Each structure stands twice: as C-alpha cells, then as structure tokens.
Amino acid sequence: MEVLTLLVLLAVVWGVLNAWTWWREKEVLPRLVDKSVLITGCDTGFGNLLARRLDQLGLRVFAGCLTEAGVAELRQSCSERLQPIQMDVSSSDSVQQAFLAVKNGVGSKGLWGLVNNAGIFGPLGSVEWSSIADYQAVLNVNLLGLINVTKTFLPLLKKSHGRVVNVASGAGRVAVPFQAPYSVSKFAVEGFSDVLRRGMRCFGVTVHIVEPGKFSTGITAQESIRRNMYGTFESQSPETKKEYGLDYIDEMHKGFNEDAGGDPNLVTMAMEHALCAAHPKSRYVVGQGTRLVWIPISWLPTDLGDYVIRVMIPWMAPVPAACKGEK
C-alpha cells in the first residue's frame, strides 16, 4: 500500500511539474518588433519558412541566402522589414560582408537572434565511399561555417544578451551509417553548441539546439535522395560495386522511402519558440521518430544500441553482398 501511495504521489508531482512547465513555456517576450534576427540557409526549407514566419510576427529578419534567386524570392514575397542577404557560410569573405550589413542595420541595439540553419547532406552510402574532399565539403558548411558565423556575430549578440539557435539533427545523437559526413558534422555541432552554451552564459547569451528528424524539405526530397544514393554508388570502382552489390543501395533507398517526412512547420515552430519565448528550452527534439527511436537508442549501451539498429532498423545498415552468409 505504501508503494502504491508513493507511485500516486510521484505521478501527481510529475503531472503538476509538466503542467507548470507547459504554462511557463507559453509566455512570449514583449515587443518582438524591436528585435532583429539573422537566419542562414533561407533559400528553401526550414530557413525560408522561419524567415517568413518571423517577418509576419514583426521581427526584423536578415535572411541569408546562398543564391541570388533565393534573395529575389524573399524580397518579392515578404515585407520591407525583411532584408535578404546573399551569404555563403563556407566563405569567410561572404560572412564578413553579411556581418557589415547586419551591423549597419541593427546599430547600437545589437542582434537578438542568430539561427544557424544552413546545411548540406553530402554523399549517401557506405562509410568508406566518402572521400576526404566529401567530408571537407560537408564540414565547411555544417560545422566550420556555423562556427565562423557564430564567432563573427557574437559581439552583436552580446550587446543584446541575445540567443543562438543551432540546427543539429537526430543524426547527431545516433550515427546513421549511410550518412557518414553528415552525421560526423552534426555530432560536432552538438559538441560546439554545448561548449558555446556553457561559455556564453556569463555574457547573457543563451544557446539552443534544435534536433529535427526527417522532414519534408528540399534536402530530403525523394528524387534528390535517389540521385544521391545511386550516383554515389556508380562513382565507386568496379571492385567496390561488386563487393557491395546493387541490392545494398536498393535496400537503403527502400527504407528511406518508407520513412515519410513530417511537416517542416514543426521545426520552425521550435525555432520560433527558441527565439521568442520568455522561457525557451535549451534543446528541442522535433519529430516522433527522433523522440521515440533515435534518442532512446542513444541512451542504450553501445553494443545494445548497435544490435537494435541491426535487427529492428536493417535498412539503416544493409549488408554488403560480400558479407552475406557470414556470421
């Protein structure tokens, strides 16, 4: 009876705590119209959706776009408050030019928010298929570009005691075997975000991590994924293609197709909360797959986690033709 009473008490405490947390997190900052935010990677996807949403809320948005077409599209479809900037996060010169534009725009107020959203997938396939150049290309955007942008804009963020929002991934918690460069970059983003959060707290700058699963954006479009997977396979040597076999790619592609992408607005809602809530979270796990599968797997002992992936999610780690039949 005492055990039952204790369980009921714990359930009540848990319920009250969750209700209080939900109520507390609903509070929005006052006078959002006085705040300025820089978002990278606004040509399409999460960045484009977030730029539009924050513009509707009245914030001043500096939308970093890689292409002139992205700049023109946002300039035409959003209010005059939104300022599109052509910005390549992998180029230090481009980042510096964007910094000058933002600095001139915000003046003495500083920058309230920085959303490091720009990212690329890189080649998909076996870990040994990606070259050092492939890793470098992905890291230049997903990690080194993110670090450079953050370091460049920190002085403006310190002025306003602002916020940094870094887009990581569920693949930064559980390594996806056929996304080697991407997973490596996102694990590093997690680490950088942690050290940045702990190091900037005394300056009043807070850091927030968004970890999406698979969502329907240009980067995960089925045709794009298919071209990536089969293109990477075809670029391998005849010996490697024989060793792995076409079934290796077919299995991986079939599994990826079965994992339908979610509504990308769920991710932008998390980003918006991180920027606009009076009491934001330090970490946002977005998507049922990430919350119910990837994160729990990341808590398991290493060998058990590997076993779960191998047995329950075989398309994540298909067996090469040369290894079939081996124990």
Automatic annotation (TrEMBL):
Q: Its Gene Ontology biological processes?
A: steroid metabolic process
**Source organism, top-level taxon:** Eukaryota
Instruction: State one molecular function term (GO).
Output: oxidoreductase activity
Leader sequence residues: 1-19
Q: Does the keyword Signal apply?
A: yes
- Keywords of this protein's UniProt record, alphabetized? Oxidoreductase, Signal
Q: Which PROSITE patterns does the entry link to?
A: ADH_SHORT
- Cite the Gene3D superfamilies for this sequence: NAD(P)-binding Rossmann-like Domain
| The keyword Transport is annotated on this UniProt entry | no
Q: Which one Pfam family would you cite for this protein?
A: adh_short
Q: Which family does it belong to?
A: Belongs to the short-chain dehydrogenases/reductases (SDR) family.
PANTHER family membership: 3BETA-HYDROXYSTEROID DEHYDROGENASE DHS-16, SHORT-CHAIN DEHYDROGENASE/REDUCTASE FAMILY 9C
Q: What is this protein called?
A: HSD17B6 protein
